[in-house]
Amino acid sequence: MLPRTAAPGRTVSRPEDRAGAILTVDLAALTENWRLLARRAGPGCDMGAVVKADAYGLGLEPVARALAQAGCRTFYVAHLDGAIALRQIVGPTPRIACLNGPNPGTERDHAAFRIMPVLSTSEHVAAWRRFALNEEVLIESVVQVDTGMNRLGLTTREFAALMDDPEGFVGLHPQVFMSHLACADEPAHPLNREQLARFRSMLGAFRTRFPDAKASLANSSGLFLGPDWQFDYARPGAALYGVNPTPAAANPMLPVVNLRARIIQVRRVDTPGHVGYGAAATAREGAKIATVSMGYADGYLRALGSSGYGVLDGLKVPVIGRVSMDLTTFDVSNVPDSAARPGGFIDIISNAVTVDDVARAAGTIGYEILTALGRRFHRRYLPAPAARI
Asked: Do both 232 and 264 map to the same domain?
């Protein structure tokens, strides 16, 4: 029989009380990071925002709204559906570029929602040219060239062939000429200057055909290589969300993410024994093990087993044993019983254990940690002021 305070189909507890972990996104810090990057590049550079992959796992709608209110006027996403969803969020004015290019047959949708396609192959250029000429439309686009990454972008040979062909770019209205840096997070890497030289050469040729085309080369780390790499449009992503764009130096960005996992049990080990699946770790007699309601199904990577750590009561507490699908165990033997108790929380990502710290422990990068963040967390968004730069 139901208690008098409950009714069928209705909850009486708060979502945060039911969740295994609480993810807090500081939108004020996010927008301040965007302003910091804009100040670094200067007034001549359009400081955009990469919000692909659901804004790096933090939520496209709240993140994009906050950035738009802060003054961001150019957004970058990976897929067309993400671009269409973003258009509904930010309204008709901002530019939106679809980085992965137009799939065949999607040209009309790009035009209908005013999405700039990033044209990275000869096939992209030819299809967009046919569409623009047949439909007699003039839609802004982005032309991408490969300058040394061998991923997306027209090769040097493909670009030269299109430039030599009088019909090569007919019908296009390129707003931006872009390429992507491969090693910007390593300032001394020789490929940075090689890519810059190739980009300048190709840009000079392109501007003989399209003198008003803007240029874009810098991602988050590229902005810190210096003014030569910044050009007209910048495309920061991870740095906006607090990931360090200068791994060899102190992080200039504000932390944006806080993740706390709920302790559901604390066990005092009576006799020495194993912990978790595969008996991969052992605990001494008297050890204190806290189990939290979060695992690899929530994006806390399995690679963090016996290598990750959290913070409880200001003290570092290591993961002990393997990360399970829904549970992770921490050795909290050094934490007072008053703090290590069921219902309490272990900080998984915080000022004391950053996204980059978690990534290093997992042998990966902060990008993967953020984009893996699960949907089962209770999400809280701290509001951002609407002041502009």
From this structure: no
Do 216 and 84 share a structural domain? yes
Query: Which residues have CB under 8 Å from 17's CB, separation 6+?
Result: none
273-275 and 281-283 strand pairing: antiparallel
Q: Is 288 noted as a catalytic residue in this protein?
A: no
Q: How many CB atoms lie within 10 A of CB 20?
A: 19
Pairing relation of β-strands 233-234 and 46-47?
Answer: parallel
Query: What residue ranges in the chain does DSSP mark as E strands?
Result: 21-26, 46-47, 49-50, 74-77, 95-98, 116-119, 140-144, 173-178, 214-216, 233-234, 257-268, 273-275, 281-283, 288-292, 309-312, 315-318, 328-331, 345-349, 378-382
Query: Rounded to two decimals, what is the model's pTM?
Result: 0.94
Note whether 360 and 310 are same-domain residues. Answer: yes
Return the closest-CA partner of residue 147 out of 217, 209, 89: 217
User: Between vectors from CA 69 to CA 68 and to CA 74, what angle results, nearest 5°?
Assistant: 20
Are 288 and 306 in contact by the 8 Å Cβ rule? The answer is no
Q: How many residues does the chain have?
A: 389
Do 100 and 217 sit in the same domain of this protein? yes
Which of 241, 270, 286 finishes a domain? 241
CATH value at residue 157: 3.20.20.10
Low-confidence ranges of the chain (pLDDT < 70): 1-7, 386-389
Is 349 found in the same domain as 218? no
- For residue 281, the cross-strand partners are 275
For 265-313, the pLDDT digits (tens) are 999 999 999 999 999 999 999 999 999 999 999 999 999 998 999 999 9
| List 52, 233, 241, 381, catalytic entry | 52
The whole domain housing 278 covers: 257-382
Determine which one of 241, 277, 300, 316 is catalytic: 277
Give the span between the Cα atoms of 94 and 78, in whole angstroms.
Answer: 16
- Distance between CA atoms of 266 and 288, rounded to whole angstroms? 7
Active-site annotation holds for 52: yes
